[in-house]
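Lecture notes, unit on protein representations.

Consider one protein chain, 152 amino acids long.
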Amino acid sequence: MNTWLSRILSWAAAAVVGGVYGIAGTIAHSLTWGPVPVGLIVAAIACAALLVAIRALTHDRASTLAAGLGMLGMVTLISGVGPGGSVVVADTIWGRVWIYLVAGLVLLAVAWPRFSRPQAAAIVPATPAPVEAPPIVTSVPGVREERASDGT
């Protein structure tokens, strides 16, 4: 019971943190310096780093998915027209790239294969074949043995 409770709480925490990163990235994505979309680049790096960190630290796809759903949920929630008519994500190329980029990052982080699994061992017979003992050497060829004649 305690294990399930801790897993559910960790999923909820991952979703909240993912949502915070989604909000911050959505607000910052529109920052540009000339033609360079600096906000989009920094937001994408931050969101990707969070997803990779959660996946690497927990080794759990569900935690990564929870963080990703938190991100996607907040991006979707604040991408629409607000109650006062304001728009956070404008219908521009960078706005569209941001929305699809977050979805792609989540998909990539959750679907990334697990490489840390031990490889399957080679098939080994259950009972090994008996091994013959090497012959015992009692004499060395070419060497003559001298015996004591006094009986000792």
